[in-house]
Amino acid sequence: MLVGNEVTVPFHSTPEAGQEPYGRNQEDSQSEALQRIITTLANKNEELHNFMETLSHSLAGVQVNSTQVVSDLEEEFDTLFTVLAEMKESMTNTIKQEGAKKTQELQKAQELQVPDP
Fold it and tell me: Is 85 inside a domain boundary?
């Protein structure tokens, strides 16, 4: 018999004095009970095997997907790094140009100032 998570097999000892010996019917009953238990265990084993295969396939899919996500992220980060490097260069050039322009304006302003006699 299957009781909870435990398998119990009805077992009958030899009859005591004064009792009738077990008949063929009781042996058949025990044999049938054992066969049902074996069948149940085999079915559960197959279910577990199928479940493990499903998990294995799911894991493989997750691994493929995560590899693709990592690859996509690396590509995106490379693109962002390139854009940032270009922006840095552009802003550095703009700052240098503005600095040069202000320096020229200051030099012109100084040249235009007339010294006091």
Answer: yes
Q: The domain containing residue 42 runs over which residues? A: 21-112
**Backbone torsions φ then ψ of 2, nearest 5 degrees:** -100, 115
Record the tokens describing residue 20, joined without a space. 């009738």
- Top pLDDT among 56 and 109 is at 56
Instruction: Name the token pair of 16.
Output: 């005591």
Mean pLDDT of 83-102: 97
CB-based contact 9:38 (threshold 8 Å): no
Contacts of 1 (CB under 8 A, 6+ apart): 7, 8, 9, 10, 33, 37
AA letter at 14 = T
Based on the structure, what is the number of domains in the chain?
A: 1
In a domain, residue 4? The reply is no
Percent of the chain residues past pLDDT 90, beyond the cut: 68
The neighbouring-strand residues paired with 3 are: 6
